[in-house]
Every structure is written in C-alpha cells, then in structure tokens.
Write a structure and sequence with these properties.
Layout (H helix, E strand, L loop, with lengths): L6 H4 L5 E7 L7 H19 L3 H11 L10 E7 L2 E8 L7 E5 L5 H9 L2 E8 L2 E8 L7 E6 L13 H30 L4 E6 L1 H10 L6 E4 L12 H44 L4 H8 L1
Helix pairs in contact: 2-3, 5-6
Length: 291
Amino acid sequence: MDASRLNTVFEADGPFATATVDVSHDSESGAQEHELRVRSVCEQLTQQGAGETVVQQVAGRLIEQVGEPAPVARTVVANAGGVVFDETFHERIDQPSVHWGPLPELSGWIRSAERNIRFVLALVDHKGGDIAVYQSDVPEPESETSAGGETTHVHKVPVGGWSALRYQHETENVWRRNAQAVTEELDSVIASGVRLVLLAGDPRSVAEVEERLKKPQATVVRLETGSRAEDGGDEAQQQAIREALLEYAVARKLELHHQLQDRLGHRRGHRRTRHCRRFRPGPGRHAADRS
C-alpha cells in the first residue's frame, strides 16, 4: 500500500468522521440494503457528536453507487471542510464501522489495503510482451494490453558469410525495440499508481526490460517461471505470483506501520505545541507574578 494516499488525511485538521461500509449491490435488495447501511452510519455519527455538515458529507459520498464487482466496501473520512479520504476495497463488511474523534480510524481499511495489492504482470519475449494489471483479491485483470510486436528478423538466421553479422545485428535491434515498447507501456502503468511489477518470460528479454524500467518508482520482481505461451492458469506461475505478493505485502506492512507512527506522532506533537502556545502566559501575567 502506498502511504502517500493518506497525505490528505495527515494534512487535514480534526475532528474526523470515519465510516467503512459495505456498498455491494450483488443481491436483488442490494440498493435498499445499501441505503439502510448509510442511514445507520448517519445516525451513529450524530449520536457520537458529529455536526450535521460533516454527517451529510459522509452520507453523500457513501450513497454513491460504486461500479465495481462485489464484494466491495468503502471508507470515507471527512472533517468540517469536506471529504479528505475516499477509498474502495474488495472485502465483505458485515457491520459498518463508524467513528467520530480527533484522529481518523483507518485500521480496518489499512488491514485490507495490506492484503489487497494492485500489481502488473508482464510476460515478455523477443516479440514484445503481454501486460495485465490486477488487484490481488480479484482473479480477473482490470486491464490487459500487448506491446511491441515487431517480428521482421526477430529470429536469428543460421546463415554464414558476411550476411550473418548483418542479420544478427538487425535481429538484436528488433529485440531491443520490442523491449523498449514493453518498457514504455510499463512506465505508463507505473505512472498510474501501480507500485509492483512482476516480470516473467524469456530471460534475456526480461533482463532488457528490467534494465530500462524506472525502478525507483516501483518494486520490480523477476519470476523464475511463466511465458507468453501459457494461458495464465499454470500452477507454477501462479505459485510464483503468490510468493512474490506475500513477500511484498510483508515488506510494505512494516514500512507502512513505521510511516503511520511517524506521521500520526508528528500530528499529535503539532497539536500539543499549538495547545501550549495558546495558553502560554503573556507579558502582563509575568509582570503580575513578579509583583
């Protein structure tokens, strides 16, 4: 999970209303159940002391229909200035979570975000690559595309004489151009917010793409199995993906908790400083004390 998604919360002033609600519409009465859950959230926020404006901000966002496959839940955080956080995730929420207080209550969303990872799988060879973006909790890709595709002289021809060097040079240029096309497509996906790239396929093509990628913006993992010829159901490939996702999730969980502790600790310290300054004795009070 990218903690930068919480920047708007860290930079906002409380108190905050936080609500996490199931917004799935996978039953005949889904719309009615959704409305009842939102109504319950409003009542709970009001009982906890949230003002009418904040309650309306939360309700207005939660009542919107989400065009994503069930199960899907939504977390909304709002203060007096409006909504400062709004995220969906694919998990069934039995009971709404509602909180009004000086800090937002995001533990439920964070636990889900740690498990649900958005990643791109790129299967590459000398002809280019197939690129698919996934959510780890949804089996079907959210998008698929192919890059490269130049095939002229893509295979080295076993001929002798002076022409062999020319064919070999042109073949390697085709490989490089196809790798560059895959890299450009992956850079575009990374720029959209995906922070985990899984690469598999022909070892030389994988190495070429990995070298060209803007790696500081994403974590790149090379899988030891998988090729464009496979249909995506290969068990070895699926196991390699699961292991890569687990390792990434553990690393991100540790990093995220450190970041949250630092940022929330800073916010608390900043509030205490402002509180102390507000009640610091002025010059007149010091003069009275000296007398």
